[in-house]
Automatic annotation (TrEMBL):
GO terms for molecular function: UDP-glucuronate decarboxylase activity. This is UDP-glucuronic acid decarboxylase family protein. It is an enzyme of class 4 (lyase). Keywords: Decarboxylase, Lyase, NAD. It comes from Paenibacillus residui. Residues 5-246 form the NAD-dependent epimerase/dehydratase domain. Its cofactor is NAD(+). InterPro entries: Epimerase_deHydtase, NAD(P)-bd_dom_sf, UXS-like. Its EC number is 4.1.1.35. SUPFAM superfamilies: NAD(P)-binding Rossmann-fold domains (SSF51735). It comes from the Bacteria.
Length: 330
């Protein structure tokens, strides 16, 4: 196959799952990642696949556009960016750059090649929302002067770049606003809710809930998310559209902690800590547009997704720790 698909951020959580699915479909894939938060080990099973090329480069480098095989790229999944507060707050300027300059470079590549481009934005574009649930037309309530702004606002500006290239140059751009996504592929030091809770519960450590746990989130299993992204890239109806990709079932953070305790059989205590600055109080998508344009909606509920995630984390930890578990976690 002469035409290639480019995945930026290929060594990250979503990027590696997407790469695996594309290769499974028989596609030719170029995976681009500077490994600032992604792990090359996520791509280990595919490095010897003749249809996969891994490039350790930064999408912010304009020289990336001159790489010889970029001329054959006809579809671009632009996923590159730290996504966990732990990582983007440690690399704020790099996060701003990848979502603005990096997005500009990928849009230039799409324009030059006549390629389609899918940009992964975020539910953080809605900030701490004053309208609930959130539909794509809601403009958000985002603080530009705080520790989350480097991610929230750079993703929003990335959307503006996409708008300009779609309307000025006719680039076939699709923007996915992704809500909380999870599975065993999340790094267990990622700092996000599911990875934190499952790791702490399996180790018998206190489960750390920030605030009183009444804040809500909607959790989408990674298989559902990837299916949505693939449909967005495939469907012409998604061109020039912003589409929410997420699960509409809403849970309080405290309920998730209790569910993880139940499913792991852990005796971990739930402890409460100060709420981080600008942490959204509620988060739930309206997905009518995804249903109408893509025929997409999630299929895996939190109970099933957590069971899959816990089983995989348990196996990973047994391999890493030589099979040792305290009696409370068996």
């Amino acid at each position: 196959m002469e035409n290639k698909i480019l995945v930026t951020g290929a060594a990250g959580f979503l990027g590696s799952h997407l790469t695996a699915k594309l290769l499974e479909q028989g596609q030719e894939v170029i995976g681009l990642d500077n490994l600032s938060s992604g792990r090359k080990s996520n791509l280990e099973p595919y490095l010897k696949n003749p249809r996969f090329t891994f490039v350790e480069r930064d999408v912010c480098e304009r020289e990336v556009l001159a790489l010889p095989y970029m001329d054959k790229v006809k579809a671009i999944f632009h996923l590159a960016s730290p996504a966990s507060p732990k990582f983007y707050q440690a690399q704020p300027l790099e996060t701003i750059a990848v979502n603005t300059l990096g997005t500009y470079h990928m849009l230039e590549l799409a324009r030059r090649n006549g390629a389609k481009l899918l940009y992964t934005s975020t539910s953080e574009a809605y900030g701490d929302p004053e309208i609930h649930p959130q539909e794509e037309e809601y403009r958000g309530n985002v603080n530009t002067w705080g520790p989350r702004a480097c991610y929230d606002e750079s993703k929003r500006l990335g959307e503006v770049y996409c708008y300009e290239y779609a309307h000025r140059y006719g680039v076939r751009v699709k923007v996915a606003r992704i809500f909380n996504t999870y599975s065993a592929g999340l790094r267990n030091d990622d700092g996000r809710v599911i990875s934190n809770f499952v790791t702490q519960a399996l180790r018998g450590e206190p489960i750390t809930v920030y605030g009183d746990g009444s804040q809500t989130r909607s959790f989408c299993y990674v298989d559902d998310n990837i299916r949505g992204l693939l449909l967005m890239m495939e469907r012409d109806e998604a061109n020039g559209q912003i589409i929410n990709i997420g699960n509409t079932k809403e849970y309080s953070i405290l309920r998730v902690a209790e569910l993880v305790k139940q499913l792991t059989g852990s005796d971990s205590r739930i402890t409460f800590h100060p709420l981080p600055c600008d942490d959204p109080k509620v988060r739930r998508p309206v997905i009518q547009k995804a249903k109408r344009l893509l025929g997409w909606e999630p299929q895996i509920d939190l109970w099933e997704g957590l069971q899959r995630t816990i089983a995989a984390y348990r196996q990973q930890m047994e391999e890493q720790e030589g099979g040792y578990y305290s009696a409370t976690n068996m």
